[in-house]
Amino acid sequence: MYQDPLVIFFVAGAITVLLTGLLMHALRQPMITGYIIAGLALGPHGAGLVQDQAIVGQLGAIGVVLLLFFIGMEVSPRQIMKSWRVALIGTILQILVSMGLVGVMGYAFDWPLARTVLIGLVISLSCTAIVVDHLKRRGEIDTRIGRDTVMILIAQDILVIPMLILLALLGGAGVDESTVILQLSGGALMLALVVWIMKSPDIKLPWIKHLARDVEMQVFLALLLCFGLAFVTGVFQLSTALGAFIAGIIVGQTRDVTWVRTHLDALRILFVAIFFASIGMLMDIHLMAEYWREITILVALTLLTNTFINAGILRILGRSWSESVYAGALMAHIGEFSFVLAAVGFGAGIVGQVAYQLTIAVIAISLALGPAWVQLIESVFLRRASTGPT
Predict the structure, then answer these.
(1) Is the confidence at residue 350, as pLDDT, over 80?
(2) I want to staple 125 with a disulfide (CB 3.0 to 4.6 A). Which of 82, 113, 335, 366 is the partner?
(3) Cβ atoms < 10 Å from Cβ of 243
(4) pLDDT of the residue at 80
(5) What is the end-to-end Cα distance of the chain in Å, rounded?
(6) Cα–Cα distance between 14 and 268 in angstroms, integer?
(7) Which has the closest alpha carbon to 251: 69, 83, 82?
(8) 32-80 pLDDT, tens per residue?
(9) How far is Cα 14 from Cα 29, in angstroms, rounded to an integer?
């Protein structure tokens, strides 16, 4: 009897996600960790049910775009203005300090400059999806530290573009001047759009009244808003996630976003799940077993250094000690765009196959351990601080 492999994949995927989901609920961990484990189980280094990782990665990229679109709907332009100083200064300082620490390590181990820069950039990025999910579940997205953290994450995502240019130069590929001009033009256009949004407190989208009772048309209008601006930023060689984020801000300013959440939230859940599953599929379990000591040390150092680098910077910028440590723990794990930087570094010959796989393993494990790390930091540092002398 003929059986479509795609049907087998969906059945196996649904069963695996449900089982890992039950495990995550029992351990009080978010589903994102379960998605990574499910991807590892289904991928080429697990059961081997998924062989074409390129397609899965492309579908996962849609999840990142939808995620940033929803985050944009939660962010007020006035909140952006309040947090711009922390976001800009905090992000730049965090990247510089991370690269400085990696530079010391690279000097000690005699790493080439390009590899040192690549690893420093990789560990300087945090995962927007995990942090926002945590803040929303705890109702902290609108708190001061919640706004600061989200804006730092957005600033990191924006700075991925110059990071990619830098890696291209270090890898010897060079940078096309026309591409740089296009990116600068697109950046200026996006900045002008954000300024317009800030000056327009009540944006009215065309045709909204005519689509009030047409659910199908509302779905496609929401998709057009999300992916339309993502396409525009892509044309300008900028991050598609940046365009989706700005589109989300525009929709949020309409003050009537219930229909967008209602019709697109299921798609967001599905594609974000595929994105994190694609991360699990990249992990080579045999290589991880061989280099488990190195991976363990690197993950521990990453979580510790990122936590206290971010905490120290936020404390310097005027946030309380408890807020700073909490935000530092939230941003301790390595982010989704770090996979992009690692892949570019591998393609440019900055790192070899083994180093690339080790980098992927460290990123994925830090993502999986991120929520548990936040709980640990809260129990060890924050509770102790709250019960200490006043």
Answers:
(1) yes
(2) 335
(3) 28
(4) 63
(5) 73
(6) 16
(7) 69
(8) 888 888 888 888 777 777 766 677 767 777 877 887 788 777 776 666 6
(9) 19
Question: Hunting for tokens 């196996």 — which residue is that?
Answer: 12
Note the pLDDT tens digit of each residue in 153-199: 888 877 887 887 788 777 766 666 777 788 778 878 887 887 777 77
Whether the CB-CB separation of 116 and 103 falls below 8 Å is answered with yes
- Check if the beta carbon of residue 369 is closer than 8 Å to that of residue 301: no
On whether the CB atoms of residues 332 and 372 are closer than 8 A, the answer is no
The first and second tokens of residue 11, run together, are 């059945």
Span 191-237, pLDDT tens digits: 788 777 777 766 666 666 666 667 677 778 778 888 998 898 888 87
Contact 374, 167 (CB under 8 A): no
Spell out the SS3 assignment of the chain: CCCCHHHHHHHHHHHHHHHHHHHHHHHCCCHHHHHHHHHHHHCCCCCCCCCCHHHHHHHHHHHHHHHHHHHHHHCCHHHHHHHHHHHHHHHHHHHHHHHHHHHHHHHHCCCCHHHHHHHHHHHCCCCHHHHHHHHHHCCCCCCHHHHHHHHHHHHHHHCHHHHHHHHHHHCCCCCCHHHHHHHHHHHHHHHHHHHHHHHCCCCCCCCCHHHCCCHHHHHHHHHHHHHHHHHHHHHCCCCHHHHHHHHHHHHHCCCCCHHHHHHHHHHHHHHHHHHHHHHHHHCCHHHHHHCHHHHHHHHHHHHHHHHHHHHHHHHHCCCCHHHHHHHHHHCCCCCCCHHHHHHHHHHCCCCCHHHHHHHHHHHHHHHHHHHHHHHHHHHHHHHHHHHCCC
Give dist(CA 342, CA 58) in Å, integer.
16
Alpha-carbon distance of 122 to 327, in angstroms, equals 19
Per-residue tokens: 39: 């991807």
pLDDT of residue 74: 72
Q: Quick one: which of 382, 101, 349 has its CA closest to 109?
A: 101
Closest CA to 327 of 338, 341, 337, 313: 313
**Torsion (CA) 147, 150, 152, 157 in degrees, nearest 10:** -150
How far is residue 170's CA from residue 111's CA, in Å, rounded to a whole number? 14
**pTM, to two decimals:** 0.78
150: which residues sit within 8 A by CB, 6+ positions away? Answer: 71, 74, 75, 128, 131, 132, 135, 141
Q: Residue written as tokens 């700005």?
A: 246
Q: Does position 90 have pLDDT exceeding 50, yes or no?
A: yes
